[in-house]
Design brief:
Elements (H helix, E strand, L loop, with lengths): L1 H12 L6 H10 L5 H19 L6 H10 L2 H14 L1
Length: 86
């Protein structure tokens, strides 16, 4: 998700985001994703950062809950990107 955000910002909007959330802001400004999506995708990125960088302990149960119930948000992101690149 983060790589796609950076790629779109660089290739399509000639901008280098300072971080993934800034990249999301660029996508919102250019109507690739909606304002509502910014919040959801920002939370996904934050959760990823907590896991990858070990900012805090994440329970196995919480990870299971997210991957079993909230993967639809990734599909919405993919659908938005596909719609944009068509």
């Amino acid at each position: 998700m983060i790589d796609v955000i950076f790629h779109l910002c660089a290739k399509h909007f000639n901008k280098a985001p300072t971080d993934a959330r800034n990249g999301l802001e660029i996508l919102v400004e250019n109507k690739v994703i909606g304002d509502n999506s910014f919040f959801v995708y920002s939370q996904i990125i934050g959760f990823r950062n907590r896991i990858v960088h070990g900012y805090q302990q994440i329970s196995d149960e919480r990870i299971y809950e997210i991957v079993s119930k909230e993967l639809g948000d990734f599909q919405k992101f993919i659908d938005s990107i596909l719609e944009f690149i068509k």
